Amino acid sequence: MTIALVARLLPAVALAASVVAPLVVPNEYYLQVLTQAYIWAIMACGLNVILGFAGQLSLAHAGFFGVGAYTTALLLTKAGVSFWLGLPAAIVLCSAAGYVVGSICLRSQGHYFAIFTLAVGIIFHLVIQKWESLTHGHVGVIGIPGPGSLGPISFESTLARSYLVLACLVATLAVTARLLASPVGRTMLAARDNEALAASVGIDVMATKRMAFTVSAALAGLAGGLYAGFIGFLGPEAASVEVMFNSLLYVIVGGLGSLSGPVTGTLVVYGLSQVLQVLHDYHMVIFGIALVLLIRFMPDGLAGAVAALMGRGR
Amino acid sequence: MTLVEATGVSKRFGGLRAVDGVDFRVEAGTITGIIGPNGAGKTTLFNLVSRTLPVTEGRIVFDGTDVTRLAAHEVARLGLARTFQHTTIFHHATVVENALVGHRRRTRAGVWDALARTARLRREEQEARAAVMATLEEVGLAEQAGRPARGLTAEQRKRLALAIALAARPRLLLLDEPSAGISAEQTRSFIALVERIAAGGVTICLIEHQMQVVMRLCQRITVLDHGKKIAEGTPDEIRRDPAVLDAYLGHR
User: Does A179 sit within 8 Å of B111, measured CB to CB?
Assistant: First the structure.
């Protein structure tokens, strides 16, 4: 009884906590870290659509994050476009890129798909790094203007920007929740569970997976665009393999295929890695052990462990 | 009217001719059986007709459309559904969600409908739930609707696999060994169910090892052995066919 009540209240409590959090952090630095965590959470939610819902291990998503970030950054700095156009442009471009990449890569399956997409991600990274006339290569893009203001609302302060990112995260969760609860989401899960059975009742498995890939690339683009607008400078590392595997870690620790899992995973893993920074070089040792233990004892991630605790089974 | 007409279909796996130049028909409104010893190519023939496997040679026409080169989901959309030998269901979903996936081909709502929760999506979802509840009722799983599918018994899983296929409202239903692994009593109730489905206007073609099931249910029987068709006819003709006796009992 009480457990069911807690389960029902959990999302509201989480939302309230994330709204209050930016107000109670001790200083600007923590606010930056928190906002950065929200951005990575959006990225993780995006990755979860293709990996958790559709069951395809895409390693190209840091590439989409980079493309989204550079699209926004270059439109803002070189074309003088407003952030409010630059951000949607990043989403649109990443959707289109996701559709094309998905159409090609999804012809392969399993490990081959993972390696194929890893190569695509690396190609994105290299193009960003080497196309110096456009991206300034290793120097990166500096002095990216922030969101400025939208109508009467000003986003000059870090606090206001933090809330902007939070709003985008809530929107991302709404999108994934609606998708999952719809026939479209059910079809994705069915294709993940058993492709042959899904096809036998008329489901176009390829189109289903491609759609999941496109949505997930669009969300990675959103995260990238916010990153560019929020941080103010950008280097090719944004599209690196490191970003890819960090995002993967957030999703897996949080719980594959669960709605809130990727957000929880991001907050915990990113938060932990920040806290452990004080140990300098040793922090990876502790971090590594913590990860092994997490994955050993919570194979379904934090979300799976919480669900089991509440006896809802998932 | 002929619903399925396969002409000279072959399937080679490397040097093995799993199905070898078989002519095969299913007449609309009948229950057709496919029998034969293990390894005769029965399931492979099913996989060719349902487009789960590519055809090496030959031509398959379903309901007047050449489906030889279509994808599995395309022929499914023309009105063909099937079950699999190793009973397959969507393990991570509830019983009703499983059946809803079968119903999906009859709905149109896409991503935008899902994101905007359009009227079309809500209407389709309501209709879909009503339709699949009727299907679950038909196969005797209505009371299990909200349960996770993986918690079902083997026999209930078979019923669910059937419900998934039926929810797609097929004109032709292919059943791969529907009575395998269930008790004699359960088999009797399963036969009754298949007869009810057939009476409802669905053409049925089934692979079956239990002779009494085949002889009782089927109007026409095709016998395969080593990938080739060795006999075809009514149950009485098949019972007396010397080639069939040879295949099952060996040469004297």
Answer: yes
Does A113 score more than 90 pLDDT? yes
Fill in the DSSP letter of residue B16: E
Q: Between residues A11 and A95, which one has the greater pLDDT?
A: A95
How far apart, in Å, do the first and last CA atoms of chain A sit? 17
Neighbours of A255 (CB within 10 A): 26
pLDDT at res. A155:
81
Query: Which pLDDT score, from 0 to 100, does residue A313 have?
Result: 44
Q: Does the CB of A215 have a partner CB in chain B at under 8 Å?
A: yes
DSSP chain A: -HHHHHHHHHHHHHHHHHHHHHHHSSSHHHHHHHHHHHHHHHHHHHHHIIIIIS------HHHHHHHHHHHHHHHHHTS---HHHHHHHHHHHHHHHHHHHHHHHTTS-HHHHHHHHHHHHHHHHHHHHH-HHHH-GGG-B-------EETTEE--SHHHHHHHHHHHHHHHHHHHHHHHHSHHHHHHHHHHH-HHHHHHTT--HHHHHHHHHHHHHHHHHHHHHHHHHHHS-B-GGGGSHHHHHHHHHHHHHH-TT-SSHHHHHHHHHHHHHHHGGGGGGGHHHHHHHHHHHHHHH-TTHHHHHHHHHTT---
Q: Cα separation of A175 and A275, whole Å?
A: 31
Q: Choose among B109, B113, B168: nearest Cβ to A201.
A: B168
Q: How far apart are CA A190 and CA B216, in angstroms?
A: 35
Q: Kindly give the interhelix angle for A261-275 and A241-254, rounded to the nearest 10 degrees.
A: 120
CA distances from A10 to A170, A303, A310, B162 (A): 15, 12, 12, 38
A184 Cβ under 8 Å from any chain B Cβ: yes
Sole residue written with tokens 């922030």: A146
CB distance B104–A186 less than 8 Å? yes
Per the CB < 8 A criterion, the answer to whether B88 and B81 are in contact is no
